[in-house]
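S2.1 Query sequence (N-acetyltransferase domain-containing protein)
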Amino acid sequence: MDAITLVEVSARHADLAYLIGKLDEELLQLYPSDEIFGVDVDDPEIEEAIFVIAYHNGIPVGCGGIRPIDQESTELKRFYVDPSRRNHGIAGRLLVYLEQRAQQFNFSSIKLETGPQQFEALQFYRKHGYCEIERFGPYTDCPSSLCFAKGL
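Output structure tokens follow.
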């Protein structure tokens, strides 16, 4: 595979919106819409989040972000790689990048939410050292939410 470039972008970046749209389409095939937790780009706290896009030959093929939960932990949000580009190491590069950025801000852990129908995601997170935890925050009462965390 040719070079992958990672670029930090704002929450309102057009390529990020495009990739999140693709992620939402995929999730809507698996879960009811009220069980999909997006990112509100109009929330003033969105400025605290960091988003990154993976480009392959100038084409946006993956994305992810982290947003603070509290002083100690951050949350992995809107993590996605286009299905045609999966299994090429892009997700791993995105994850390592975001984990390093979280460490730069002195977070001691990253938490995330995914669902039981996302088999590839579950395997990926476990492979990268994430362990299942109790549901947290907005996911506490969502039956299709599985939550994971990793110490940094």
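The first helix runs from residue 14 to 28. The CA atoms of residues 14 and 101 lie 22 Å apart.
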